[in-house]
Amino acid sequence: MSRATVCPGLYKDEKGKFYCKFADNAEIDPAFMPCLLEYWECPFYIRHKQAEKALEVEKAEKEEIKQQETPPATVPTVEAPTPGVSPTEVSAERFTDEVDRLIDRASELARLWESYESEARRVVEEWEELRDKIKRELAGLEAVINAYISEKGRLEKLLDEGKISEEEYIDLNSRLEKKLAEKNSEKEALTKKLADLDRVVLPHYKRVKVAEAKPELAKLRLALSKLEERFKSGGISEEVYMRLRAELEDKIQRLEKIKEEVE
Question: Whole-model pTM?
Answer without folding.
Answer: 0.49
